[in-house]
Amino acid sequence: MREHDTPVRQPWIQVIPPEEAEGLLREIYETTRKKRGKIAEIHKIHSLHPESLTAHMDLYLTLLYGRSPLSRREREWIGVVVSLVNRCAYCVAHHTDALRRYEKRETVIQQLHQMAWDTLEEPLATLSRFVEHLTREPWSLTPGDLDRLRAVGYDDRALLDIVQIAAYFNFVNRIVLGLGVPLESEEARQGYRY
User: b vs e for 61-83, b when ≥16 Cβ sit within 10 Å of the residue's Cβ?
Assistant: First the structure.
Protein backbone atom coordinates (compact mmCIF):
# COMPACT_ATOMS: atom_id res chain seq x y z
CA MET A 1 0.00 0.00 0.00
CA ARG A 2 1.30 3.46 -0.88
CA GLU A 3 1.38 6.37 1.55
CA HIS A 4 -1.43 8.12 -0.40
CA ASP A 5 -3.73 5.13 0.10
CA THR A 6 -4.06 6.01 3.78
CA PRO A 7 -6.14 9.08 4.59
CA VAL A 8 -4.19 11.83 6.37
CA ARG A 9 -5.47 13.93 9.23
CA GLN A 10 -4.26 17.39 8.15
CA PRO A 11 -3.64 18.84 4.70
CA TRP A 12 -0.03 19.53 3.84
CA ILE A 13 -0.60 23.27 3.29
CA GLN A 14 -2.27 25.99 5.32
CA VAL A 15 -6.06 25.97 5.11
CA ILE A 16 -8.38 28.69 6.37
CA PRO A 17 -11.40 27.04 7.99
CA PRO A 18 -14.89 28.45 7.32
CA GLU A 19 -15.20 29.85 10.85
CA GLU A 20 -12.06 31.99 10.30
CA ALA A 21 -12.83 33.06 6.73
CA GLU A 22 -13.26 36.73 5.92
CA GLY A 23 -14.23 38.81 2.91
CA LEU A 24 -14.27 37.05 -0.45
CA LEU A 25 -13.36 33.65 0.99
CA ARG A 26 -16.25 33.84 3.46
CA GLU A 27 -18.65 34.71 0.61
CA ILE A 28 -17.35 31.86 -1.54
CA TYR A 29 -17.61 29.38 1.33
CA GLU A 30 -21.22 30.44 1.92
CA THR A 31 -22.07 30.13 -1.78
CA THR A 32 -20.45 26.69 -1.85
CA ARG A 33 -22.31 25.59 1.28
CA LYS A 34 -25.63 26.63 -0.29
CA LYS A 35 -24.87 24.70 -3.50
CA ARG A 36 -23.33 21.56 -1.93
CA GLY A 37 -24.98 21.34 1.48
CA LYS A 38 -21.71 21.66 3.41
CA ILE A 39 -18.05 22.54 3.03
CA ALA A 40 -15.83 19.55 2.23
CA GLU A 41 -12.08 19.28 2.68
CA ILE A 42 -11.66 19.57 -1.13
CA HIS A 43 -13.36 22.98 -0.90
CA LYS A 44 -11.20 24.15 2.01
CA ILE A 45 -7.95 23.27 0.25
CA HIS A 46 -8.62 26.22 -2.11
CA SER A 47 -8.80 28.72 0.76
CA LEU A 48 -5.55 30.52 -0.06
CA HIS A 49 -6.84 31.15 -3.61
CA PRO A 50 -10.64 31.45 -3.25
CA GLU A 51 -11.28 32.29 -6.90
CA SER A 52 -9.95 28.83 -7.76
CA LEU A 53 -12.71 27.32 -5.61
CA THR A 54 -15.31 29.25 -7.60
CA ALA A 55 -13.82 28.07 -10.91
CA HIS A 56 -13.53 24.51 -9.58
CA MET A 57 -17.16 24.46 -8.45
CA ASP A 58 -18.40 25.93 -11.75
CA LEU A 59 -16.61 23.18 -13.68
CA TYR A 60 -17.81 20.48 -11.26
CA LEU A 61 -21.44 21.57 -11.42
CA THR A 62 -21.36 21.90 -15.22
CA LEU A 63 -19.84 18.46 -15.79
CA LEU A 64 -21.63 16.49 -13.07
CA TYR A 65 -25.03 18.23 -13.07
CA GLY A 66 -25.34 20.10 -16.37
CA ARG A 67 -27.07 18.91 -19.53
CA SER A 68 -25.54 15.71 -20.84
CA PRO A 69 -26.50 12.50 -22.62
CA LEU A 70 -24.80 10.77 -19.67
CA SER A 71 -26.87 9.86 -16.63
CA ARG A 72 -25.83 11.00 -13.16
CA ARG A 73 -25.00 7.33 -12.50
CA GLU A 74 -22.59 7.23 -15.44
CA ARG A 75 -20.96 10.50 -14.42
CA GLU A 76 -20.36 9.38 -10.83
CA TRP A 77 -19.20 6.01 -12.19
CA ILE A 78 -16.50 7.73 -14.26
CA GLY A 79 -15.37 9.63 -11.17
CA VAL A 80 -15.00 6.45 -9.15
CA VAL A 81 -13.14 4.62 -11.95
CA VAL A 82 -10.62 7.47 -12.34
CA SER A 83 -10.18 7.72 -8.57
CA LEU A 84 -9.66 3.97 -8.20
CA VAL A 85 -7.00 3.99 -10.92
CA ASN A 86 -5.26 6.94 -9.22
CA ARG A 87 -5.69 5.40 -5.74
CA CYS A 88 -7.38 8.54 -4.48
CA ALA A 89 -9.22 7.26 -1.39
CA TYR A 90 -10.82 10.69 -0.81
CA CYS A 91 -12.58 10.80 -4.20
CA VAL A 92 -13.38 7.07 -4.19
CA ALA A 93 -15.21 7.52 -0.87
CA HIS A 94 -17.06 10.71 -1.77
CA HIS A 95 -18.12 9.59 -5.23
CA THR A 96 -19.04 6.07 -4.16
CA ASP A 97 -21.33 7.77 -1.62
CA ALA A 98 -22.85 9.73 -4.52
CA LEU A 99 -22.99 6.72 -6.85
CA ARG A 100 -24.97 4.72 -4.29
CA ARG A 101 -27.85 7.15 -4.82
CA TYR A 102 -28.10 5.96 -8.44
CA GLU A 103 -26.73 2.40 -8.31
CA LYS A 104 -28.61 0.36 -5.71
CA ARG A 105 -26.96 -3.01 -6.43
CA GLU A 106 -24.14 -3.45 -3.95
CA THR A 107 -22.72 -6.31 -6.05
CA VAL A 108 -22.17 -3.85 -8.92
CA ILE A 109 -20.44 -1.39 -6.56
CA GLN A 110 -18.19 -4.25 -5.41
CA GLN A 111 -17.35 -5.16 -9.02
CA LEU A 112 -16.48 -1.51 -9.62
CA HIS A 113 -14.23 -1.35 -6.56
CA GLN A 114 -12.49 -4.56 -7.66
CA MET A 115 -12.02 -3.01 -11.12
CA ALA A 116 -13.54 -6.22 -12.52
CA TRP A 117 -14.59 -4.65 -15.81
CA ASP A 118 -15.23 -7.99 -17.55
CA THR A 119 -17.94 -8.84 -15.00
CA LEU A 120 -19.92 -5.65 -15.67
CA GLU A 121 -22.89 -5.18 -17.96
CA GLU A 122 -22.57 -2.99 -21.04
CA PRO A 123 -22.07 -0.13 -21.53
CA LEU A 124 -20.37 0.11 -18.11
CA ALA A 125 -17.69 -2.46 -19.00
CA THR A 126 -16.56 -0.58 -22.11
CA LEU A 127 -16.91 2.79 -20.39
CA SER A 128 -14.74 1.60 -17.48
CA ARG A 129 -12.03 0.18 -19.73
CA PHE A 130 -11.90 3.42 -21.72
CA VAL A 131 -11.73 5.64 -18.63
CA GLU A 132 -8.97 3.49 -17.13
CA HIS A 133 -7.01 3.67 -20.41
CA LEU A 134 -7.47 7.45 -20.61
CA THR A 135 -6.26 7.82 -17.02
CA ARG A 136 -3.27 5.47 -17.24
CA GLU A 137 -2.02 5.97 -20.81
CA PRO A 138 -3.78 8.86 -22.56
CA TRP A 139 -1.01 9.09 -25.17
CA SER A 140 -1.84 5.61 -26.47
CA LEU A 141 -5.52 6.21 -27.29
CA THR A 142 -6.66 5.89 -30.91
CA PRO A 143 -9.89 6.60 -32.79
CA GLY A 144 -10.68 2.90 -32.32
CA ASP A 145 -11.04 3.46 -28.58
CA LEU A 146 -13.82 5.97 -29.27
CA ASP A 147 -15.38 3.58 -31.80
CA ARG A 148 -15.73 0.97 -29.04
CA LEU A 149 -17.70 3.50 -26.99
CA ARG A 150 -19.87 4.34 -30.01
CA ALA A 151 -20.56 0.62 -30.49
CA VAL A 152 -22.16 0.43 -27.03
CA GLY A 153 -24.36 3.47 -27.61
CA TYR A 154 -22.41 6.64 -26.83
CA ASP A 155 -22.68 9.47 -29.37
CA ASP A 156 -20.03 12.14 -29.92
CA ARG A 157 -21.53 14.52 -27.34
CA ALA A 158 -21.38 11.70 -24.78
CA LEU A 159 -17.76 11.01 -25.79
CA LEU A 160 -16.89 14.66 -25.14
CA ASP A 161 -18.53 14.50 -21.71
CA ILE A 162 -16.82 11.18 -20.84
CA VAL A 163 -13.39 12.62 -21.60
CA GLN A 164 -14.09 15.93 -19.84
CA ILE A 165 -15.40 14.21 -16.70
CA ALA A 166 -12.46 11.80 -16.62
CA ALA A 167 -10.07 14.75 -17.06
CA TYR A 168 -11.84 16.65 -14.27
CA PHE A 169 -11.44 13.75 -11.84
CA ASN A 170 -7.78 13.35 -12.75
CA PHE A 171 -7.40 17.07 -11.92
CA VAL A 172 -9.15 16.71 -8.56
CA ASN A 173 -7.31 13.48 -7.66
CA ARG A 174 -4.03 15.32 -8.14
CA ILE A 175 -5.13 18.19 -5.91
CA VAL A 176 -6.12 15.71 -3.20
CA LEU A 177 -3.01 13.55 -3.50
CA GLY A 178 -0.59 16.43 -4.09
CA LEU A 179 -1.76 18.49 -1.10
CA GLY A 180 -2.76 15.75 1.33
CA VAL A 181 -6.46 16.59 1.47
CA PRO A 182 -7.80 14.56 4.41
CA LEU A 183 -10.78 12.25 4.04
CA GLU A 184 -13.67 13.08 6.33
CA SER A 185 -15.22 10.30 8.40
CA GLU A 186 -18.19 8.45 6.92
CA GLU A 187 -20.46 10.30 9.35
CA ALA A 188 -18.99 13.68 8.43
CA ARG A 189 -19.58 12.93 4.73
CA GLN A 190 -23.36 12.79 5.27
CA GLY A 191 -25.38 15.79 4.14
CA TYR A 192 -23.74 16.60 0.80
CA ARG A 193 -26.04 17.30 -2.13
CA TYR A 194 -25.41 14.63 -4.75
Answer: eebbeeebebeeebbbbbbbbbb
